[in-house]
Specification:
By secondary structure, the chain is mainly alpha-helical. The chain has one domain (about 5-195). About 85% of the residues lie in helices and about 0% in strands. It has helices at about 5-15, 20-30, 35-65, 70-90, 105-115, 120-130, 135-155, 160-195. The protein is globular. It starts with a helix and ends with a helix.
């Protein structure tokens, strides 16, 4: 495993997936008393998201090639999209509304757009396309699994997490992660422009 690639992928994915924020949103979407339902929803959401990012990350570039879209164009578009996500993380107010009825939230809104939204899917393509070795691909895959495993654990512990961190803590963390994501997005845009003009 290439530790530098793993660390880079882990940082980017952690920022955009936001396991803590996702767990707090998950807590508000599933009734607190439904323990079995909560576990099933958390597992389904993580499995769907992991598969989406892995498949799209590995085969998304080939699909783009068929459509005549270069990876550099995707870097710039992805950077702009990530910047938009970061801007919203920094400026928008978080909305919480506790659920009262039991429903399947694993695909929408948990997997798409929260855990495997456009930003995460774009980032996965960029991460896999930046690696040229099997070791690099394995490092990115392990980073994806690490982030989603952490998210799953936090989902299981979401009721405790909400008590510990609270809304204020979540808002502070969300805005801080937004700044990091904004910097990452600018780097993607810069790399895309540099490779096109260079």
């Amino acid at each position: 495993m290439d530790f530098a690639i793993y660390l880079n992928a882990l940082t980017g994915l952690f920022v955009i997936v936001d396991p803590i924020g996702a767990a707090l949103i998950f807590h508000s979407l599933v009734p607190d008393g439904e323990k079995r339902h909560r576990k099933v929803m958390a597992l389904k959401a993580i499995l769907i998201s992991s598969l989406l990012l892995t498949i799209f990350g590995n085969y998304g570039e080939a699909l783009l090639h068929q459509l005549g879209i270069s990876i550099e164009s995707l870097r710039i578009a992805g950077g702009l999209l990530l910047f938009y996500t970061a801007f919203n993380m920094i400026t928008k107010d978080a909305e919480y509304e506790d659920a009262t009825e039991k429903k399947d939230i694993s695909v929408f809104p948990m997997s798409i757009p929260l855990l495997a939204g456009p930003g995460a899917l774009t980032l996965s393509i960029l991460l896999f396309s930046n690696t040229t070795t099997t070791e690099g691909n394995v490092s990115v895959l392990i980073a994806i699994l690490t982030v989603y495993l952490l998210t799953l654990i936090l989902m299981f512990l979401s009721s405790y997490l909400k008590k510990i961190i609270g809304r204020t803590g979540d808002e502070i963390l969300s805005r801080f992660l937004g700044v990091l994501l904004a910097a990452l997005s600018i780097q993607f845009i810069y790399d895309g422009i540099s490779n096109i003009t260079g």
